[in-house]
Amino acid sequence: MREINESWFRYINHLGIEYPFLNNIFVFFAEYTVLFLALFVIFLWFKRTSEGRKKVIVGVLAFLFAYVTGHLVGFFHFNYQPFIEMENVNQLIEKRANNSFPSDHTILFFSFCVSFWLFHKRNVFWLVLAVLGGASRIGVGVHYPFDVIVGATIAIIYALIFYYVVPKSFLIQKSLTYYENLEKKIWRSSKSRNNKDIDL
Fold first, then answer.
1. What is the pTM of this model?
2. What are 121-140's pLDDT values in tens digits?
């Protein structure tokens, strides 16, 4: 199993050595698409549509549960990052040495991206982004393929669970309604205060 893991890692990671232009692409997807994802989640929430907020809730819950599960799984298997354990690794970003199994970044990518995709299955953009995000962690030399595969699997399972649970959950719907009513009151209060300031 370890031989397969290292062999797959070498193949993907050394693409950046054979084709140097790929290095910037690996770094971009490994480091900066997280920012894009965060900005999109904020946009989706404050767009104030019911479906958009349900997407965010599914993604957040999937990530939280997958993250905790990933750390529990990490108690049963430990491996350092490839750049610690192997020679001639094409390491493109700095990372502290610790247990890289499973990949937290991959859990984040797949939790949100798969959750978004489930609401619009014809749009494969989110699946492609998740795969590129996971593969890029191998490309930059900080994770093995099995770190990514296990992280993705955990995230997909929870995304599927919460995709079916959230829309039917009375508690979540009640909480969302309460939040939206509170949001409307704050919005009206702020608008009223601004109007008074203009009148003065």
1. 0.88
2. 988 999 999 999 999 999 99
